[in-house]
Design brief:
37% of the residues lie in helices and 15% in strands. It is of the alpha/beta class. It has a 6-stranded mixed beta sheet with strand order 2-1-3-4-6-5, with helices on both faces. The chain is globular, with a radius of gyration of 17 Å.
């Protein structure tokens, strides 16, 4: 597994390693993907490890449903989010290149975004929509996402474009069954007392 745009302690890579599989991360510590040098580091890792799966989770902030709501507040807010999306377009281009790279080698690719992410509506992703399956699920059912302080489940809807049928079958449709209440995601929370 090669995990791209992830945190230093991303659970996906950790779980793969815990199960005895080889996995590597490419986050900011391995190189800023907005730069030529950062992208070169990523492709060196891809060539060295040849991962069966690349899991791609570009920054969702400028594309989130919250950003759309905030952009509707004023012309200034709309301009701000348009600028942020423009600055993050390299992530869409990089994702398309990574997808093509994996497909050319007969390997798999997965693109992760929150549900309702405007990124998934970008016309540049038409190629992926034609050749992947879109699985949608809630994190309270997949991943057991809970608030770190209250331990109350958090729903957080997710969407993955995947080339791997078993991933699609395992994740798609696993929506909240309504058997619990949810901690609202908006606002703030404390973790370990701070």
């Amino acid at each position: 597994l090669g995990e791209v745009f992830c945190s230093r302690e991303s659970p996906l890579t950790q779980q793969a390693q815990n199960l005895g599989h080889q996995a590597f991360r490419h986050g900011l510590e391995q190189g800023d993907l907005a730069t030529t040098e950062g992208r070169a580091n990523l492709f060196r890792s891809l060539c060295r490890h040849v991962p069966q799966h690349v899991w791609y989770s570009p920054v969702s902030g400028p594309w989130s449903s919250w950003s759309a709501l905030n952009a509707s507040r004023s012309v200034e807010h709309q301009a701000k989010y348009q600028q942020l999306r423009h600055e993050h377009r390299y992530q869409i281009a990089l994702g398309i290149v990574l997808y093509r790279h994996q497909i050319a080698k007969g390997l798999h690719f997965h693109w992760e975004q929150p549900q309702r992410s405007l990124m998934m509506l970008h016309p540049g992703l038409n190629e992926l929509h034609q050749h992947t399956q879109s699985c949608q699920f809630d994190m309270c059912r997949v991943g057991n996402l809970v608030d770190p302080e209250t331990k109350i489940p958090m729903k957080k809807g997710m969407q993955i474009l995947t080339t791997h049928e078993p991933i699609f079958r395992a994740l798609h449709g696993r929506a909240c069954n309504g058997e619990h209440t949810h901690q609202p995601i908006e606002g703030s929370t404390k973790c370990q007392g701070s």
